[in-house]
């Protein structure tokens, strides 16, 4: 078939199918986010226009934002569908690097198609081209190499035949999942080739389920049988395997308390008697108390990030770690006994290997006892009192959410409030982007989630800082007709970083507006509601918690019936936080002009003495 490179690429996108979370078949690439420029409008742009009835194209207004929306699609569909984003060369391409970093850190699939400079180099230097004096092959797209799982620059049309199978390998591989980047020189996009029809034959991609090595499985079972106080930690790999039910049955059969990581939140019903709560700094005292006494930890589908392990102080010295993970890279970390396998298959075979073995009933009962204490603490935080707090706002959203709804956040203090304080109302219904903690993901990711999950209400919680960082995709979503609710908590700046700054002995500086340099006696403030309304959104400014509940109900209705974002703005307390009582290692200066900083450094040294050090 005589096609241009761009036409072949688009036709290939259309041929890729996937098994959706509900078992139905759907497109692997449900749509493309695009901002056209001279580097992609004629080649890829014309090819997308030809297929506009089959492949939706959504216009973004910031390349980073639209690529983050593509990431949001991947998370909302549990990695079963892949968002695509294309930009022109130069600044447009570089704006998508941050989104690639988000996808890479969170092991999420993303396909980026940045335009590139001319492969033939005849018109060099072209508009937006940077020139490297000693390497003419280098372009700005080489910046993607650090944040991509797969990178290729297509300099001849026929190279697609070799690279496209590798692209789908990375995008659908549970162990190697992450962003793929195809840099497309603008002249090559327009060049043609006789492509074989087989390249465009429909292919259905189903999640692979590698089974564990029998010897590793037997060793893991031996370790668990020797445990008196085992603990099960569920991560994002359990979500992407759709193995939550299997994990709960495993825990019930063997009487093992269960905790969740950030990526594993909402996998376990909140009131399940074996649920100890979320683990780590942004988790709960209940899970952390169980972790401090556990003698064996079975970590499934998690890379055990520092917020989950409290910088490796949450577990007891001498704990034995068993890691079941589809990625060998993660399974072998921290001296773990590694079992490389799909979460669902691995837990199925491990429970068969364990047979009728059960942990102690008294230890299993501790999970509900400890979680009840944490629930009481959170109930106290949710009680109305003065200026609304993050915990109260989260509680109100939680109370008004149903099993089909979806909640997300990414940065600032809200991840801690959502991870620690949310009570699951549906399985895998939370997205806390805390691998890269990208300010601005909250709005862009919500747009992608709203596209992927049209049946429920998507709610994003964010601070005023994140809103100001990246809000352009509010208009993109409003224009396209995708409704979601954004709850903007205005606490006068970057409050959680102010907390870290002052909590480690420093002076408040350049975070809260009171400590930011200005030439004005009364500096300007943002009217978030007016701004959101000007972007085509419904806006609901409120002053108190009662008003918030009413406004949030209305916002949910607007998002569903008017098909546009609804933004609820509420002033919140700048220093009221949910605290799981865990430690986190940060770089506090050894030498400083403030005694409080040097004292904090001594506290860091004391914390580091408690860190568990593995291989």
End-to-end separation in angstroms reads: 54 Å
How many domains? The number is 3
Number of β-strand runs: 23
The value of Rg in angstroms is 25 Å
Describe the sheet with the most strands. Answer: 6 strands, parallel
Output the number of helix runs.
24
Structural write-up:
The chain is α/β, with parallel strands linked by helices and 615 residues long. The protein folds into three domains: 2-205, Rossmann fold (3-Layer(aba) Sandwich); 214-373, TPP-binding domain (Rossmann fold, 3-Layer(aba) Sandwich); 383-571, Rossmann fold (3-Layer(aba) Sandwich). 38% of the residues lie in helices and 17% in strands. It is built from 24 helices and 23 strands. A six-stranded parallel beta sheet has the order 5-4-6-7-9-8, with helices on both faces. Helix 12 (306-309) links the parallel strand 15 and strand 16. Helix 3 (63-76) packs across helix 18 (441-452), helix 8 (214-225) packs across helix 14 (343-354) and helix 16 (390-399) packs across helix 17. The longest helix is centred in the middle third of the chain and has 22 residues, at 361-382. It starts with a strand and ends in a 7-residue tail after the last helix. The model has no long low-confidence stretch (mean pLDDT 97). GO terms for molecular function: 3D-(3,5/4)-trihydroxycyclohexane-1,2-dione hydrolase activity. Keywords: Hydrolase, Thiamine pyrophosphate. InterPro entries: DHS-like_NAD/FAD-binding_dom (IPR029035), Myo_inos_IolD (IPR030817), THDP-binding (IPR029061), Thiamin_PyroP_enz_cen_dom (IPR012000), Thiamin_PyroP_enz_TPP-bd_dom (IPR012001), TPP_enz (IPR045229), TPP_enzyme_TPP-bd (IPR011766).
């Amino acid at each position: 078939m005589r096609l241009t490179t761009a036409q072949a690429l688009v036709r290939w996108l259309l041929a890729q199918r996937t098994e959706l979370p509900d078992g139905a078949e759907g497109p692997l690439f449900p749509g493309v986010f695009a901002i056209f420029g001279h580097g992609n409008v004629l080649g890829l742009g014309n090819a997308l226009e030809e297929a506009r009835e089959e492949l939706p194209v959504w216009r973004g207004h910031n390349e980073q934002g639209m690529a983050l929306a593509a990431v949001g699609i991947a998370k909302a569909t549990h990695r079963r569908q892949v968002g695509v984003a294309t930009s022109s060369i130069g600044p447009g391409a570089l704006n998508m690097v941050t989104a690639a970093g988000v996808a890479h850190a969170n092991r999420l699939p993303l396909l980026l198609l940045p335009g590139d400079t001319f492969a033939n180099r005849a018109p060099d230097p072209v508009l937006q081209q940077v020139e490297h004096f000693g390497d003419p092959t280098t372009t700005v797209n080489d910046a993607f190499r650090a944040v991509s799982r797969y990178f290729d620059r297509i300099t001849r049309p026929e190279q697609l035949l070799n690279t496209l199978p590798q692209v789908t390998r990375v995008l659908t591989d549970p162990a190697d999942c992450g962003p793929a980047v195809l840099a497309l020189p603008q002249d090559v996009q327009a060049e043609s080739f006789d492509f074989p029809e087989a390249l465009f034959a429909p292919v259905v991609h189903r999640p692979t389920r590698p089974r564990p090595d029998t010897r590793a499985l037997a060793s893991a079972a031996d370790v668990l049988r020797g445990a008196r106080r085992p603990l099960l930690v569920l991560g994002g790999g359990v979500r992407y395997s759709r193995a939550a039910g299997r994990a709960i049955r495993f825990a019930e059969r063997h009487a093992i308390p269960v905790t969740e990581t950030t990526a594993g939140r909402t996998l376990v019903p909140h009131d399940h008697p074996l649920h100890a709560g979320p683990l780590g700094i942004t988790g709960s005292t209940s899970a952390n108390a169980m972790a401090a006494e556990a003698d064996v930890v079975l970590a499934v589908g998690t890379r055990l990030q520092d917020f989950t392990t409290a910088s490796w102080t949450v577990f007891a010295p001498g704990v034995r770690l068993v890691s079941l993970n589809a990625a060998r890279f993660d399974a072998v970390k921290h001296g773990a006994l590694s079992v490389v396998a799909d979460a669902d298959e691995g837990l199925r075979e491990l429970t068969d290997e364990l047979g009728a073995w059960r942990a102690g009933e008294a230890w299993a009962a501790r999970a509900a006892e400890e979680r009840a204490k944490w629930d009481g603490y959170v109930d106290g935080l949710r009680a109305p009192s003065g200026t609304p707090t993050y915990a109260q706002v989260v509680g109100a959203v939680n109370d008004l959410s149903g099993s089909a709804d979806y909640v997300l956040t990414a940065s600032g203090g809200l991840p801690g409030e959502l991870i620690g304080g949310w009570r699951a109302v549906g399985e895998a219904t939370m997205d806390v982007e805390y691998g890269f903690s990208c300010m601005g993901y909250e709005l862009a990711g919500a747009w992608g989630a709203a596209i992927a999950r049209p049946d429920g209400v998507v709610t994003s919680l964010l601070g005023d800082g994140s809103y100001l960082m990246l809000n352009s995709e509010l208009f993109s979503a409003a224009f396209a007709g995708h409704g979601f609710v954004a709850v903007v908590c205005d606490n006068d700046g970057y409050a959680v970083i102010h907390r870290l700054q002052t909590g480690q002995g420093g002076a408040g500086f350049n975070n809260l507006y009171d400590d930011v340099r200005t030439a004005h006696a009364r500096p300007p403030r943002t009217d978030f509601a007016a701004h959101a309304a000007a972007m085509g959104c419904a806006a609901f400014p409120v002053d108190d918690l009662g008003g918030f509940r009413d406004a949030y109900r209305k916002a949910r209705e607007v998002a569903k019936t008017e098909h546009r974002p609804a933004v609820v703005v509420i002033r919140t307390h700048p220093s009221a936080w949910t605290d799981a009582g865990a430690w986190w290692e940060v770089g506090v200066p050894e030498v400083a002009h403030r005694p409080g900083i040097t004292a904090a450094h001594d506290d860091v040294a004391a914390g580091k003495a408690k860190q568990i050090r593995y291989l």
